[in-house]
Amino acid sequence: MNYNDIKTIDKCTIAARGGMTLLSQEEINRMMAVGQGGVHELFRKCCLAVLNHDASDDDAMAVLQRYPDFNVKLIPRERGIHLQFTNAPAQAFVDGKMISGIRDSIFAVLRDIVFQSAQAEVNSFDLQQPFDITNYVFEILRRAEVHEYGLEPNLVVCWGGHAINRVEYQYTKDVGYQLGLRGAHICTGCGTGAMKGPMKGASVGHAKQRIDNGRYVGLTEPSIIAAEAPNPIVNNLVIMPDIEKRLEAFVRLGHGIIVFPGGVGTAEEILYLIGILSDKKNQGIPFPFIMTGPKESADYFYQIDEFIRFTLGDEVADLYEIIIDDAEQVAVKMMAGMSAVKLHRSRNRISYYFNWALHIDEKLQFPFIPTHENMASLKLYRDRPLGELAASLRAAFSGIVAGNVKEFGRQQVMEHGVYQIHGETELMDKLDTLLKAFIDQKRMKLPGSEYVPVFEVVKEN
Fold first, then answer.
1. What count of other Cβ atoms lies within 10 Å of the Cβ of residue 151?
2. Greater model confidence, 222 or 37
3. 4 — pLDDT class (breaks 50, 70, 90)
């Protein structure tokens, strides 16, 4: 690609929007201090990701290389903070004005990156304590005005890959449409593919039912947003600090989860949820969990199911249901499951808008840093307790995701070679088979991209 042909807007200034219009002078001063310091580069990268919404690849580093002169400056005003952009991607503008939805997302970035960093000085969260981590997740969501107090359970989390084919994408839209007709709202990882499809389908269902306040919540994180820029349907973007807090936000905010076809990121999400729902402390807590896809994707779910049963046991499979090629049944089952959620929370006086009662073990809460040493130390053996093994498997898939698309992981692989994943021979055989299937099915990168493995499976006796 000739980067000289890329169109940019030389200079543009936008006024504060949403919660960023109601700031005290002290808050503005703190934001200016952190926004011009070490936080600035992260803020710049996330803004560029949002502005680059029509990206045709999933390479965060390539995006930064295309726009080396892009920058954003914070300008203090009595009515919040204005932002001044230089050399911004032209596709984010129409007739010189920034597209409204992109502008909203930009101020979500300001809120979650700069404001939250400024608030760290006054907040008392100890992020080494599980209870404080959960409260921190709640605070970020509350500041983003995601919580809808008083609404009955109706938020469906949809997981799945960004690198899916047209048939799979259409199926995610069909399921979203059936959910929208039944008044459900959608929360996804905010990107393309299986994250965009359910929102797009639900928006049509909402329109037919004259639901004009549809919630399309997108939860992302700084290290993934450039690879999965927010799709245009997201009307409430939240950037969580890391993948672990992003996953916790999903399960505490949503009332049920649907999993569409995906790759290692989707496998990570599945194992995270299994690790929670299989915990004895969560027995009796209803949480509808459905895996689904078109008939052409049946093998994907059978491979996932086989891997889960082999590594964690057949009883774990009781936590989820697999429905193939029946979008309406998926919606009917999910709505029935959310009715059970409502009954349980009403009887036990648990809030509808945030699931405080769900226990999440600290192994799933504390951030996993995908260095080569940490990846090699996971030691995947079936004689370990179920929760520990599920958490380690989740971490292994998380590391592969980082090596595939995240800036930190990409740099690690470039500097030190591929990640090595160690474990018992039988389990490693199953893991190797699953990962090769993901590669063969082109689930590691967007169509048209050549995938080079960032991992090596090492068998131990």
1. 12
2. 222
3. very low
CB 405, CB 59: distance < 8 Å? yes
Question: Given strand 321-324, what is the order of strands in its sheet?
Answer: 236-239, 216-220, 185-188, 155-159, 256-259, 289-293, 321-324
Q: How many CB atoms lie within 10 A of CB 411?
A: 13
Quickly list H helices, 52-129: 60-66, 100-109, 116-119
- The H or E element that residue 156 is part of is strand 155-159
Task: Give me 319's structure tokens.
Answer: 């936590």
pLDDT at 54 over 90: no
Q: Which tokens hold the place of 78?
A: 């009595």
pLDDT digits (tens, 9 = 90+) for 74-101: 998 877 789 999 999 898 999 989 999 9
Handedness of CA 202, 203, 206, 212 (dihedral sign): positive
Mean pLDDT for the chain? 90
Q: Is 12 exposed, middle or buried (0-12, 13-18, 19+ CB in 10 A)?
A: middle
Residue 137 CA to its chain's centroid (Å): 14
Measured CA distances, 147 to 140, 142, 235, 362 (Å)? 10, 6, 14, 24
Alpha helices in 377-456 (DSSP H): 386-405, 407-416, 425-440
Using a cut of 0.90, tell me whether the model's pTM lies above it: yes
Whether the per-residue pLDDT at 448 is higher than 70: the answer is no
Give Cα 406 to chain centroid, integer Å. Answer: 13
| Rounded Cα–Cα distance for residues 404 and 396 (Å) | 13
Q: Residue 284 class from Cβ within 10 Å (0-12 exposed, 13-18 middle, 19+ buried)?
A: exposed
Query: What would the two tokens of residue 162 be?
Result: 């960004």
Task: Check: CB of residue 154 under 8 Å from CB of residue 253.
Answer: no
Contact criterion met (CB below 8 Å) for 403 and 419? yes
